[in-house]
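Lab manual, section 2.4: Encoding a predicted structure.

Procedure: take the sequence of the chain (127 residues), apply the prediction step described in section 2.3, and record the output as structure tokens. A sample record is shown.
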Amino acid sequence: MLQLLRTAGIPSRYVSGYICPNESGLRGEGATHAWVEIYTPKQGWLGIDPTNNIWTMDNHVKLSVGLNFTDCTPIKGTFKGLSKQTLSVFVSIGYEDGRHFEEINDVQLQEVSSEFQKELDHAEQQQ
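Recorded output:
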């Protein structure tokens, strides 16, 4: 969608964020989500959610903007060496009407074979 908009000469940007769960049935509720924004001289930046085929609403929570996904990935950094990893994401959203939503998503990592695990343990001992 970004490339289509840019090819048409419409200023646009990538947006990373969340859709607040509110039982609206939107794809991506309660998880990381992305959409695009276009710039209009009279209205400024307007969000378009192509996944749900709608204009963005108040329940779209913007976390970052950039030219593309690379500019505003949820996780950035470098890693060197062998290590065991886990990833957990915690989202807390407060609504104006007093409702509150909290969710923890623990990402399940793929299990490694026992032979590879022995190699990892040996490499850690060597360090």
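Check your result against the sample. The radius of gyration is 20 Å.
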